[in-house]
């Protein structure tokens, strides 16, 4: 055996560790957080894997290989691109939050405007009701003036004509307000919605029929605002 042949094993032995270290470079790469997957995903899905049971974290070998095979500049560019994308998403999130705040303020203003609108409508309705009452009272003042003038005449004066004229004026005011007099004739049937029975009396009218009207009632727009007070025949006078 020559001296060169005898030295080859030693040189081979010296080169062997270096080769082993080179082959292990890929496994020495740091594991990124995104490269870690859940233990359940590493198993067979039913929790029977020993690694999943022990809570060990499995690593995506393809991702590790891709990182190991990539040069540092490529990895740096990819990280920079991801960082830029994250910054862009954060800017979009800030913009959305600003839009939400603006819409919230607009909603509050609209709600305040609606409340003010309701208050204005309520006040206007009250004013209209007051004006309607004012108009009615104004027309009734003429009726009162006529009654006052009739009472100021001499005691011996015949005031019937003036009173009748005043009553007609008053009825005209009621007609203008869509008010009808409820004054049934004797012998008519009692209407419990429009008539109030005061007492049963002896009368020539049929039993249960109206004998006499004690006080007329009034209807306004088909609504009874005061029932007519009547007496009812018990039939004893027949």
Give, in order, the helices and strands: HEHHEHHHEEEEEE
Distance between the termini: 164 Å
The number of E-state strands comes to 8
Q: Please state the average pLDDT score.
A: 75
Strand content: 5-15%
What would CATH call the architecture of the domain at 182-238? Roll
Specify the overall morphology. elongated
Q: What is the CATH superfamily of the domain at 182-238?
A: Head domain of nucleotide exchange factor GrpE
Helix fraction, binned, reads: 55-70%
According to CATH, what is the topology of the domain at 182-238? Nucleotide Exchange Factor Grpe, Chain A, domain 2
- Based on secondary structure, the structural category is alpha+beta
Q: Characterize the biggest β-sheet.
A: 3 strands, antiparallel
Q: What Rg do the Cα atoms give?
A: 53 Å
Low-confidence stretches: 1-45, 51-58
Figure out the total of helices.
6
- Side by side, the strands of the main sheet go 3-6-7
CATH top level class name of the domain at 182-238:
Mainly Beta
Descriptive overview:
With 238 residues, the chain is an alpha+beta fold. The chain has a domain at 182-238: Head domain of nucleotide exchange factor GrpE (Nucleotide Exchange Factor Grpe, Chain A, domain 2), CATH 2.30.22. It has six helices and eight strands. The strands form three sheets. A three-stranded antiparallel β-sheet has the order 3-6-7. It has a three-stranded mixed β-sheet with strand order 4-8-5, with no helix packed on it. Strand 6 and strand 7 (223-226) form a beta hairpin. Helix 5 (72-151) packs antiparallel against helix 6. The longest helix is centred in the middle third of the chain and has 80 residues, at 72-151. Mean pLDDT is 75; it is low at 1-45 and 51-58.
């Amino acid at each position: 055996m020559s001296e060169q042949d005898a030295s080859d094993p030693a040189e081979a032995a010296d080169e062997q560790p270096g080769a082993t270290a080179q082959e292990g470079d890929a496994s020495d790469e740091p594991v990124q957080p995104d490269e870690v997957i859940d233990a359940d995903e590493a198993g067979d899905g039913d929790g029977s894997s020993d690694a999943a049971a022990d809570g060990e974290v499995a690593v995506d070998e393809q991702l590790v290989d891709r990182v190991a095979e990539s040069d540092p500049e490529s990895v740096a560019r990819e990280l920079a691109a991801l960082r830029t994308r994250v910054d862009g998403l954060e800017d979009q999130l800030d913009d959305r939050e600003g839009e939400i705040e603006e819409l919230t303020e607009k909603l509050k203003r609209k709600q305040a405007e609606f409340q003010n609108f309701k208050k204005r409508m309520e006040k206007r309705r009250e004013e209209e009701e007051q004006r309607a009452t004012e108009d009615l009272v104004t027309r009734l003042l003429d009726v009162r003036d006529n009654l006052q003038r009739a009472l100021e005449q001499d005691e011996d004066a015949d005031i019937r004509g003036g009173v009748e004229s005043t009553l007609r004026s008053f009825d005209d005011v009621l007609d203008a307000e869509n008010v009808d007099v409820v004054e049934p004739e004797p012998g008519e049937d009692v209407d419990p919605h429009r008539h109030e029975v005061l007492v049963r009396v002896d009368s020539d009218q049929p039993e249960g029929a109206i004998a006499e009207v004690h006080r007329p009632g009034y209807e306004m727009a088909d609504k009874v605002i005061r029932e007519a007070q009547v007496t009812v025949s018990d039939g004893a006078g027949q």
